[in-house]
Every structure is written in structure tokens, then in C-alpha cells.
Amino acid sequence: MRPIAQAALLSAVALAGLGSPGVLWAEPDTIPLKELPQNSRLAIWGDSITETTEYPRYVEVYLLACAGRKDIKVCTFGHSGERIRSLISRQSDLEFFHPTIVSFNYGMNDSEYSAYTEPKGAGFNNSVRAGLAMLAEKGIKQVVVVGPDGVDDNGKPETVAHNLTLLHFRDFARAAAVESGAAYADTYHRMIETYNLAKKDLGPTFGLPVHPAPAATS
């Protein structure tokens, strides 16, 4: 795989269904995203993984270069350090941009970079559902729940525990999306699968940090 774009590219491809009625890059039974109407306005919410703009940039490039959609406006609302509950606290972003479709990728900060606990999982689950309910109340009919992403599963106990927390969050996010009628993009499994393939090509020292960047071999 040369070059390999990590979280940014994977998250973008996960949203490939935005330009067509195809199924999102996720599990076979995931709800497909309907073709976007003309002049749609896509708001991308998230934490620092979104704020660094790599992931939104790939989404916008896909829409323009691959889907040929010059009519779709994209605006990024990533804020470093945020957790999923910020979906409720920053509703002014919606009032400013007036999106017709929203995607959000949270979970890394909610994980606290540590082992899973039931209170931690319940808090994430409740916040995802509250955010989806808020978007529905505002009449936003198309929503994509993305991730959360995965990290380098290097065998260290703390990293393994962190990844398991993110996996639990992935299950909560997917269930909430399916039950609410939103689309879901499983970036967690795709990132881990692609990372393991990349290590075969780039060597065992190749990593998948919290803030991934495109990587290539000469």
C-alpha cells in the first residue's frame, strides 16, 4: 500500500456514500445513506482529529473529485479536547451554518485513554443518543455517525485496554445510529485492518497514533 493515508483517508472513504446511493463503507447491514440533494450543506463535527482538517479535507476532495459534486458546501467544526456531549453544548454551530447533513466523530477523549468501565460507556452511549435526538429535533434528517477511530494495538497493556474501550464505544455508536435511522461508518475496524496490513509493508515500527497522518514509503 503506497501511499497509506491513515485516519483521515479512512474516515473520508467511510463517507464515500455521500455522493451516491451506495452503502457506507461499513458492515453489510449498516443503513445506506441516501443520495444527497442538490446544494446540500455538510457539517463535520468532532475533536482534534477533525480539527486538524486532514479528515474533512479528504471528504471534501472525494465529493468534488470523485463524486463530481461541486454544489455541496462543507464546513468543519472540530474542537481539540472535546467529548461527545459537546454536540449539545455547541448548537450555535448549526444555527450559523444551517447544515442539511451532519457527520460527527467523537470518542477518543471520552475514552480517557484508559480501560473501559461501565460508567464511562454509559456516559458515551447516553451522549451519542442525546446528540442524535437534538439533531432530529432540529429537522436534520441525514446524519452520519463516524467511528470512533482505533489506535496502535502494539501489545502494550495500556494500549490494548484503550483499544477495547474504543471498540465498546464503536458498538454503542453503531447501535444508536441504527436505532435512530442514521448512517454509520465503521472506521474502527477499517483502521485496525488497514494498519495491520500496513505493518507488513512498512515494517513493525509503523504506528497508528491518536492523530494519524498520511504515510508513504519511498
Q: What is the approximate shape?
A: globular
Query: How many strands in all?
Result: 5
Strand residue percentage:
5-15%
Class from helix and strand fractions: alpha/beta
N-to-C terminal Cα separation, in Å?
11 Å
**How many domains in all?**
1
Describe the structure.
With 218 residues, the protein is α/β, with parallel strands linked by helices. It has a single domain, classed as 3-Layer(aba) Sandwich (Rossmann fold), CATH 3.40.50. It has a 5-stranded parallel sheet.
Keyphrases for this structure?
single chain; 218 residues; alpha/beta; Rossmann fold; disordered N terminus
What is the topology?
Layout: H1 7-14, E1 41-46, H2 48-51, H3 54-66, E2 73-78, H4 86-89, H5 92-97, E3 101-105, H6 118-137, E4 142-146, H7 157-180, E5 183-185, H8 187-202
Parallel strand pairs: 1-2, 1-3, 3-4, 4-5
Helix pairs in contact: 1-3, 6-7
